[in-house]
Amino acid sequence: SPTPTATATGALVEFRGLRRAFGPTVALDGLDLTARPGELLALLGPSGCGKTTALRVLAGFEQPDAGEVLVDGEDITRVPANRRDAGMVFQSYSLFPHLNARDNVAFGLRVRKMPAAERHARAAELLELVGLPEHGGRFPHQMSGGQQQRVALARALALEPRVLLLDEPLSALDAKVRLTLREEIRRLQLSLGITTVFVTHDQEEALSMADRVAVLNAGRLEQCAPPAELYERPATPFVAEFVGTMNRLPARRADGGRIEVAGVALPVDGGIPEGGDLEVLIRPENITATADPEGTATVVSASFFGSVTRVLLDLPGGGTVHSDVPSRDAGALLPGVRATVAPAHRPVLVVPATGTTTGTATGAAA
Ligand code: ATP
Hints:
- By secondary structure, the protein is of the alpha+beta class.
- It is built from 8 helices and 20 strands.
- It has helices at about 50-60, 100-110, 115-130, 145-160, 175-190, 205-210, 225-230, 235-240; strands at about 15-20, 25-35, 40-45, 65-70, 75, 85-90, 165, 195-200, 210-215, 220-225, 245-255, 260, 265, 280, 285-290, 295-305, 310-315, 320-325, 340-345, 350.
- A hairpin with a 2-residue loop joins strand 9 (about 210-215) and strand 10.
- It is elongated and about 80 Å long.
- The protein binds adenosine-5'-triphosphate (ATP).
- This is ABC transporter ATP-binding protein.
């Protein structure tokens, strides 16, 4: 019989060689990925990269064409969804409209034949856990979007699942509620120690909440790493340009295995491709921009982000660059003003030149 007070503990979740095609569309193309016990793993990637399909395969709503899903070493690939130990929260509020919050949360417990008094006590406990102790009698239409998602979370946790699956649970909410719920989901997830797989297309959400972020591209894993590592040491150009804002600037080989960008020789992170034209990937915070009447760059726009101001500049040969300037130093960088731009002396990722406009900024002849 169910134990209403037991705490869920983290399971080890493994995707091995998952493949799933829908007609000619390959949604998962040999996905290998592990969620460690108790961690919050975010699946991040552009639209159509296979995030939701991966989550649905884990939930049992979708069968892979090849590969396995293991939970704590047990192959559950063929186990039907209703016999998998997973709680799920979706983007759209999926509460039963004719049930109040308490009965929504207790629904699964009722299906499992838990006595009424016990399941009501358990539902009250869960509503308290998600910060809605007074809302048990409310129906979905009497609650805000954020409150409904809290109830959905309580419902997902009611059966003490070994894995919590979240499919863009915050994307229908307004910005303020989203930020609050991010923190609350994270706090809850940490306190319960429940392994959580979180699908999002919002990189800020992934980076701010997750222990590790898995970046997917065309059904494959590009990189899975803690947020700071993903940002500081992207394993591929795709990750470099997908996560955060990135400048792509023309470069050429310099002495001592270094690379020259805008007249400055920089150390290299991860080697220099053989032959052909080269470009480097540099974050806006690693580009300085200073107002200078003799400068060759021109300020296009400046966006205030609180402590930093992101300045967009035209470069002499065409092309643009983003520079993050401490806001207290950015006052003179007004549109039309001349400026000098220089890369900070930090290791850069060197890639073959594409000559095309990709990512969030494009380079020009230095
Ligand atoms: P988004 O962020 O837009 O939700 P996603 O990364 O979650 O995208 P998936 O929903 O997993 O991507 O879809 C991956 C690919 O598989 C897409 O090209 C999608 O159109 C396709 N696809 C997914 N489900 C089906 C289906 N049931 N029938 C046909 N094609 C599908």
